[in-house]
C-alpha cells in the first residue's frame, strides 16, 4: 500500500474521467435550470416549470451524492463537518471491523467444514494423483524438496543431534535384560548351534592348514631345560588333541563341550536378566563402548553415508526410492478416487486440520489484517482505495442526478395536478 503501480495510475485516470463526467452532468442540469427559469419568466409556457423542477431536483441529487461520495475520502470543501473523511479517520477501526468480519464469516468451524465438504478434496485429489503425469510431477517435487532440505542441513549439526540422540537413548535404556531375553530365546530354539557348527568347522580347517604353526607355538612355550625331542612330542600331542577335539565337536551334536556351551549360554542369559553384578558390568561396558571416539565417528559417518544415498536416489529418476514413491502415489490416488471410505477419511483429515488451524490461529490471522491496515499511511491508503473503487462511486453521483431529476419532475407534476 505504499507504491502506486501502473495499473493503479490507470485506475486513477479512470476515476478522474468519471469525476469530470459527473461534474459535467451537474453543470448541464444547472444550465438547464437557469435556462428553464429564464424561459418561465419570459412566458414560455407551463413546460418551463416542469423542466426547471426536474433540473432543480437533479442539482440537489447531484450535490447530495457528491457530498456523500467525497465524505468517504476527505472533508468536502475542506470544511470540518462531522462524520466526513471516513476512510482516513476510521482506517484503523475499518481494519478491526474487516478482521472481525473475516473471522466470523470465513474462519468459523462450520463455514470451513461446509466449504471443504462441498469441494470433495479426497475425490478430486485422488483423481488428480491417479494420473501418471501428475504422480511424476509430485514425485519430482518431493525429490527436489528432499534434496533441498538435505542441502540446507549442515552435516555437523545433524551428526551431533544423531549422536546425542543415540547416546542418550542408549544411556536411558538398560540393555542387559533385553539381551538376556533374546539370548534365552536363541538358546531355547537352538539358533546358536549353527554358529557353533560354523566356528568349529572353521577352527578345524584352520588347524589343518596351520599345524606347523601350532606345534611351533607349543614348542616355543616349553621351558628351556627340556629336551628338544620332548618339546616336539608334546607339540605333536597337543596338536593332535586339538584336532581331535574340533573334529568330535564338529561331527557329534551331542558332544559334552556343546552341552557345556549350551548350559553356559543359558546361565549367562539368566544372569543378564536377574543378576545385579552382571547387569552392572554390561552397563559399564556399554558406556565405555559408546564413549569411544571410534564409535562416535562411526555414528557420524553413518549419517554421511545415509545422506549421500538419499540424495543420489532423489536425483535419479529411475532409482528404487523414486519408483516406489511414484507407485505409492498412483496406488493412493486410485484408492482415493474409487473407495468412499478412503475419500471420507481424507476429507475428515483435511477438515480436521483446517478447522484446527482456523480455530487455533484465528486471532493471529485476523490480527494480520488489522495490523496490516493499521500500518498503512492514511492519506496514501485513501488515494489507493479511491483509485480502485472511485470510478464506480462516481456512478452514484450520475444516478443521483438522473434519479433526482425524475423525482423532482414527478413531485412537481403531482403538485400541479393536485393544485389544479
Automatic annotation (TrEMBL):
Q: What is this protein called?
A: DUF445 domain-containing protein
Keyword annotations of the record: Membrane, Transmembrane, Transmembrane helix
GO CC annotations on file? plasma membrane
TM ranges are 20-36, 48-73
Among its keywords, does the record have Membrane? Answer: yes
Report which superkingdom the organism of origin falls in. Answer: Bacteria
Give the matching InterPro entries: DUF445 (IPR007383)
| Species of provenance | Streptomyces griseoruber
